[in-house]
Amino acid sequence: MIVFRTCHKKFIHQLDGRGGLIVEGRWHTKGHETINTSISMALSLLEVFKLHNLDIIPANFCGVELHFPDIEIETFPSASLPKRWNNPLAYMNTLQKYGDEWLLQKRALVLKVPSASDSNYLINPNHPKFDAVSIIRSYELIVENGYLVMPIVI
Q1: Which residues contact 79 (CB under 8 A, 6 or more apart)?
Q2: CA gap 29, 110 in Å, rounded
Q3: How far is 140 from 96, CA to CA, in rounded Å?
Q4: How many CB atoms within 10 Å of residue 87?
Q5: pLDDT per residue over 96-147, tens digit each?
Q6: Gap between the Cα atoms of 54 and 146, Å rounded
Q7: Out of 18-22, 65-69, 91-95, least confident range
Q8: What CA–CA distance (Å, rounded) separates 106 from 100?
């Protein structure tokens, strides 16, 4: 399966999940290594905008295209989504707990979770099959006046 990650240029080849040690996300609490990816580069950018409260794309951000085998994916049961699951008060007790348990128990290499428009994929860098994750290519996001002009393979 192919997924996309958006990150600062200095982390473009870093796949260790250290960002999760510093900040919490909808699907994990702070202190858990995880790599957040999306089904498309557009959704990956949108998630970064939301996480960092951005209005424009920073000039030093890049895109990374990753591959992992389709067989190691756990899907979050959508019937378990709380109402207003986008609200931090709703996800702090349910979604983060689910993600933390998934990470610690290493139940699958990847956790497929819903997003506002499609799916995101969390990758557990501590899973025994993490070696199956590979970088396909990286993109420099060419930005002018805060808008994406084009991605260039680097």
Answers
A1: none
A2: 17
A3: 31
A4: 11
A5: 899 999 999 999 999 999 887 789 999 999 999 999 999 999 988 776 766 6
A6: 10
A7: 91-95
A8: 10
How much is the pLDDT for 20?
Answer: 83
Rounded to a whole number of angstroms, the CA Rg of the chain reads 15
The pTM of the full predicted model, rounded to 2 decimals, is: 0.88
Which token pair is 12?
Answer: 């473009």
Question: Tokens 């428009």 appear where?
Answer: 117
List the one residue out of 4, 37, 35, 38 whose CA is nearest residue 18. Answer: 35
CA distance 107 to 76: 12
What ranges in 6-151 are assigned the alpha helix state H? 19-22, 41-52, 88-91, 95-105
Rounded CA separation 62/11 (Å)? 9
Of 74 and 54, the one with more pLDDT: 74
- For the sheet with 110-114, list strands across it: 73-75, 110-114, 119-123, 35-38, 2-8, 61-67, 134-144, 147-153
